[in-house]
Design a protein that fits this description.
Low-confidence stretches of chain B: none
Strand content of chain A: under 5%
Number of strands of chain A: 4
Largest sheet of chain A: 2 strands, antiparallel
CATH topology of the largest domain in chain B: Fumarate Reductase Iron-sulfur Protein, Chain B, domain 2
Radius of gyration of chain B: 22 Å
Structural class of chain A: mainly alpha
Helix content of chain A: 40-55%
Radius of gyration of chain A: 22 Å
Largest sheet of chain B: 5 strands, mixed
Strand order of the largest sheet of chain B: 2-1-5-3-4
Oligomer: heterodimer
Number of domains of chain A: 1
Order of helices and strands of chain B: EEHEEEEEHHHHHEHHHHE
Order of helices and strands of chain A: HEEHHHEHHHHE
CATH architecture of the largest domain in chain B: Orthogonal Bundle
Mean pLDDT of chain A: 95
Shape of chain B: elongated
Largest interface: A-B, 50 and 64 residues
Strand order of the largest sheet of chain A: 1-2
């Protein structure tokens, strides 16, 4: 506190429930982290062979340890010990994308770092340097994680097309297929609305007049970008739900209701 | 329908101060600044308050109402329960002069540190031209009324006075972004934004956007694009290499 500032003893005069939103978001993020950790270390129930469903948590499955049929892109990685997630590449790629995402940064800085918990509510720490030094300076790598996430979104599209296989051959649609396509739509919206995407497609330009096509792309992504936070949270739930559903089908907890074949 | 409003107003100066309780008659449709003016006119003639337009356009009457940075002239009393006591305090981030008046010269010092717009030579006919899309891009940033509520609420300096020398604040990141996106400007301020202005200290918690009375999307449209531009300049080897090979950016670094 500066010596010349008004001497106000109370830390904040806010009377609204400013703690509710960061608490709620924090609990959701915590649930996601715990669920993902359990699922990634489970190394099982990620491929429903009969229905051709591969959970997005394990896509692409590129280790020799993957169950037969789940490796759509070969197995360039060798067998991996059971205590290491076989989908470690996916974990790092999409985990890194979410961890460095501008929306999630806001969310976890508020909920976990309390920096600040809410606007005009003092943070507890004595000093603060933000994202100027390691490890938080790594947040500047977000655009590379975006490139990886965009690639994974295309792989998810491939998985979703494979999920159109019928259980008796030919084309088929089950409840799982609908869930997978719904999740794909949300993941695509989340990825395309990313701030790094907005920058890459046209935001970095200084002269829109000379680049009308990129300006058009920028305009479209900017429209999506206003809802980036919503897409981030919705896709968090859809990806968990999709994974849980495929785990349940793969583990034979129940059979996938078929709509077509 | 009028009623008696219970208020607590911070009274004091640089040496000491306290919340003074008042009861002020107010009318339907009034704002907090109206109540403060009535208080000044009827009970506390020595109450210091800075104001000017009463229309949310001059940015003078910035203060904190029930702990939230607000323009007093844009804060309706109907937002509060008539039985509620409203607490009005000066902005916490800046030195106080007296009562609700702060010394905001920190902001003008930061403005001076920012290299001005530097256009290149004009076209042969003596005019400078830019496309409408580029004109529109900067319009949002020029809505800023310099109320400095974003500066006040930013925890980087609100909670850490020691960061002031190294941090320009959201209002000036807005200006950095506006100039960096200007097609006619010849200065490259990206390095400056990261180092001297302390852009890296911002952790994009969006409080500046939350309090902006002009609803400027400071974080999404200025700070994050500026952070991405700094990444282009400092942290992305591919973009750096591309700009060197293809000579994409011929601006002068300042």
């Amino acid at each position: 506190m500066g010596p010349a500032r008004a001497k106000v003893a109370e830390r904040t005069f806010r009377r609204d429930r400013w703690w509710l939103s960061p608490l709620g978001i924090g609990l959701i993020l915590l649930f996601f982290v715990v669920y993902s950790t359990i699922r990634y270390f489970m190394n099982d129930h990620y491929w429903a062979a009969e229905e051709h469903y591969l959970t997005p948590f394990y896509s692409p499955c590129i280790s020799a340890s993957c169950v037969p049929g789940s490796s759509h892109f070969g197995t360039p990685l060798p067998e991996i010990p059971a205590f290491i997630p076989i989908a470690i590449v996916t974990l790092i790629g999409v985990g890194g994308f979410r961890a460095t995402c501008y929306y999630y940064r806001k969310a976890y800085y508020r909920s976990f770092f309390l920096s600040p918990t809410a606007c005009a509510v003092p943070e507890p720490r004595g000093s603060y340097k933000g994202e100027t030094r390691f490890p938080l300076i790594v947040q500047n790598s977000h655009r590379y994680f975006f490139y990886v996430a965009a690639l994974f979104a295309l792989i998810n599209l491939y998985d979703a097309i494979l999920a159109l296989h019928g259980v008796n051959g030919g084309v088929g649609v089950g409840l799982g297929t609908v869930i997978i396509w719904g999740n794909l739509a949300m993941l695509a919206a989340y990825t395309l609305s990313c701030h790094a995407c907005r920058h890459v497609v046209g935001g970095r330009l200084r002269n829109f007049g000379k680049h009308p096509v990129r300006y058009r792309f920028w305009t479209l992504v900017s429209k999506l970008n206003t809802r980036h936070g919503q897409f981030a949270m919705i896709s968090l739930f859809t990806v968990i739900f999709t994974d849980f559903y495929i785990m349940a089908v793969a583990a034979d907890w129940f059979s996938d209701p078929r709509i077509v074949n | 329908m009028g009623y008696d409003l219970s208020m607590r107003v911070w009274r004091g100066d640089v040496d000491s101060g306290e919340l003074a309780p008042y009861t002020v008659p107010v009318e339907e449709g009034e704002v907090v600044l109206d109540a403060v003016h009535r208080l000044q006119a009827t009970q506390a003639p020595d109450l210091a308050v800075r104001w000017n337009c009463k229309a949310g356009k001059c940015g003078s009457c910035s203060a904190e109402v029930n702990g939230r940075p607000r323009l007093m002239c844009m804060t309706r009393l109907t937002d509060y329960d008539p039985d509620e006591t409203i607490t009005v305090t000066p902005m916490r981030t800046f030195p106080v002069v007296k009562d609700l008046v702060c010394d905001v010269s920190y902001n003008y010092e930061k403005a001076r540190e920012l290299p001005a717009f530097a256009p290149g030579p004009p076209d042969p006919d003596g005019k400078r031209r830019m496309m409408q899309a580029d004109v529109e891009r900067g319009q949002e940033f020029r809505k800023c009324i310099e109320c400095f509520l974003c500066q006040n609420t930013c925890h980087v300096i609100r909670d850490h006075e020691e960061n002031k020398p190294a941090f320009a604040g959201p209002r000036f990141f807005l200006r950095y972004a506006e100039l960096d996106m200007h097609p006619l400007d010849t200065n490259d301020r990206r390095q400056l934004a990261q180092e001297a202005a302390g852009l890296g200290m911002c952790n994009i918690t969006k409080c500046c956007t939350e309090v902006c009375p002009e609803n400027i999307k400071i974080t999404d449209n200025a700070i994050i694009p500026m952070k991405e531009r700094v990444v282009d300049r400092r942290y992305d080897p591919l973009v750096w290499l591309g700009s060197k090979i293809f000579r994409r950016d011929e601006r002068t670094e300042v």
